[in-house]
Hints:
The chain is of the alpha+beta class. It contains two helices and five strands, in the order αββαβββ. A hairpin with a 7-residue loop joins strand 3 and strand 4.
Amino acid sequence: MDSDDEQLLRGRIYGADPDHPGPKQGRRYAELVGGPLDGLLLDITGWRPEEIDDGVSLSTELGQFPGGRALYDPRPGEPRTPGPGVSCRFYYSGDTP
């Protein structure tokens, strides 16, 4: 992935309709930091705190294993902002086939 690809992904929602890629009013998001999905937002509206604590495994063609998954986790003790908008960050922890 080159810098043009990275710029294209910034501020977009993981898994969103390409015609409406940006954040939506009243939704909660986790910012994905590092790895192949760096800069994307993940919609976590309605997730329970323990679901957020578990992190995520996201399908991607951009990682070490095309068609595999990129793993992202919150950092323990990092504050979360309640309400809409970007409320937390998930940090890249590796790829899996």
